[in-house]
Amino acid sequence: MTDRPVTLAVIIGAHGVTGEVRLKLFGEGVETLKSYKGFDAAGRALTLRSVRPGPNGAVARFAEIGDRSAAEALRGTELTVPRSALPALGEGEYYHADLIGLPCFSSEGEGLGNVVAVENFGAGDIIEVERPMGKRFMAPIHAVTIADERVVIEAAFAV
After folding, report:
1. Superfamily designation of domain 96-157
2. Which of 11, 35, 53, 65 would be a feasible disulfide site paired with 19, CB 3.0-4.6 Å?
3. Strand locations in the chain, DSSP E?
């Protein structure tokens, strides 16, 4: 496991005139963000002062953002923390960030490529695998075994 940055939210715009920002969340919700005091925002450190549920995600106030212009200037900025700052996981749990880049094999041992994304369209997680020649395919997480820094996909789903 590397200590690469993990994106927890992205600033989607300003909220009001005092420097609050609207956030699109990628984690478990507002309460999760409260456990982190600071974030990296494209090389800039932001200190969280408050966060609450808001339209399409959350509304946050950062010590370094004092007005609407400063808030608008950060639109599209990802808020990240180091992977090591995330809570420990239980048996069989994983962070999507840990799967990206892992090599994939079929249950019959054939090399398939590497995980390039983990998506969820409402029915459960789906991993996206890119083959060596660039073609991609998706497999449902229930057809996947994750162990020893590799992903094994049941042969019927490894198309």
Report:
1. PRC-barrel domain (2.30.30.240)
2. 65
3. 5-15, 20-25, 38-41, 44-54, 57-62, 78-82, 103-106, 111-120, 125-130, 136-140, 144-147, 150-153
